[in-house]
UniProtKB/TrEMBL annotation:
It catalyses: Hydrolyzes free adenine bases from 7,8-dihydro-8-oxoguanine:adenine mismatched double-stranded DNA, leaving an apurinic site. Its EC number is 3.2.2.31. This is Adenine DNA glycosylase. Its cofactor is [4Fe-4S] cluster. Residues 42-194 form the HhH-GPD domain. It is an enzyme of class 3 (hydrolase). PANTHER family: ADENINE DNA GLYCOSYLASE. Belongs to the Nth/MutY family. It comes from Agromyces lapidis. InterPro entries: DNA_glycosylase, Endonuclease3_FeS-loop_motif, HhH-GPD_domain, HhH_base_excis_C, HhH_motif, MIG/MutY.
Amino acid sequence: MPRPAAPDLAPAVNEWFADAARPLPWRAAEVSPWAVLVSEFMLQQTQVDRVLPRWEAWIRRWPTPASLAAEPAAEAVRAWDRLGYPRRALWLHRAAVEIVERHGGEVPRGVDELLALQGVGPYTARAVAAFAFGVRVPVVDTNTRRVIARAVDGNAEPAPPSTARDLAAMSALLPESPHEARAFNAAAMELGATVCTARAPQCGVCPVSDRCAWLRAGSPAYDGPRKPKQARFAGSDRQVRGLVMRELRAAHRPVTRAEIMGIWADAVQLERAISGLIADGLAVETGEGMTLPEA
DNA sequence: AAGACGTGGAC
DNA sequence: TGTCCAAGTCT
């Protein structure tokens, strides 16, 4: 059953993008596919301004997958610093190893090969294929999902994510020309990130306000299923894990059990955090104490 | 397939 | 202040 004809958003959005695109360094013409891949790992659930300095430093230090793969994972986790979700650092290191082992040190260009890399999911695989190699594939992130929900479907917020549905919706909007398709993938994300925002969308400056289904319907409030509430961070296992990782990063030697116990009052929760980190491979227990993973 | 996973900024 | 959100992925 065909969905209703989607409005032709790409020309107007791309025209807007040509002018409004932020000059993000990983969008520069001369950056390598590896640099793009690194940016996409860092940008998962993380804002641009927090990524910028970490990305610059990372690319300077590890300009190729092989250069990262040659170092212990601990170095990757340290360089990740406080970007958050440190397992991404582990995954990026592992992906670098996989690229060296399976692809001769060159970031693969195919979505399937990219998908097979550790830490690379539907979004990142297509983002790298599209942005680093110009492959004509739909790229859908949270920003694009919101733009489509509003402009096409007339809803204030997207339905819960469904990779198949989201990719189909973006495919219907994607220009035929690979060049314009690549631009539109980036432009839709940029529109969602800077104009069609979650909080206070700036419809007054939106390039497709004249054909936005949501605006046309009178900007009705969202009435779909609510997103699960995010658990409070203060006092959470996540916070404790973060504190332990901060300790392990700072210490360039094994941290003793006694030292660890000093960073959080609740010993049971601390124990749970430590076990979790070990299970995740972010920490290893030696005879001397705990350290970041060397492998 | 719902829930876990860091951290910080904005309102 | 607390709540929501942020270029997702994995189990």
